[in-house]
Specification:
Elements (H helix, E strand, L loop, with lengths): L3 H5 L3 H4 L16 H12 L8 H28 L1 H4 L5 H6 L2
Length: about 100
């Protein structure tokens, strides 16, 4: 921290060490599974790229999830209707079956 050397009375230049950092560059090892993955990407790159069909599947899945959640909420509301029917205003009670 700057300033702490003066606060504690330490001579920063006297205790400073010039550290030398050595970097050892190594070549990455190639394993059979890494080679197989590289070959798969080279042979069938369309599997790993975004396409319109995957976007359509994603959109359909999202719509399905949203509709499923809404259907679940509706089912829960219909199942518990007798419990809270008396709490509803008379105008809304008249609209319900």
């Amino acid at each position: 921290m700057k300033g702490l050397d003066k606060f504690y009375g330490i001579d920063a230049d006297a205790v400073r060490e010039d550290a030398v950092v050595e970097v050892l560059a190594t070549t990455p090892e190639s394993t059979p599974d890494m080679d197989a993955e590289d070959n798969l990407v080279k042979d069938k790159p369309e599997l790993f790229m975004s396409s319109s069909s995957s976007e359509a599947n994603s959109t359909a899945r999202t719509v399905g999830i949203v509709l499923g959640v809404l259907a679940g909420i509706g089912l829960l509301g219909a199942a518990t209707l007798p419990l809270y029917r008396d709490m509803l205003p008379p105008q809304i009670q008249a609209l319900l079956p």
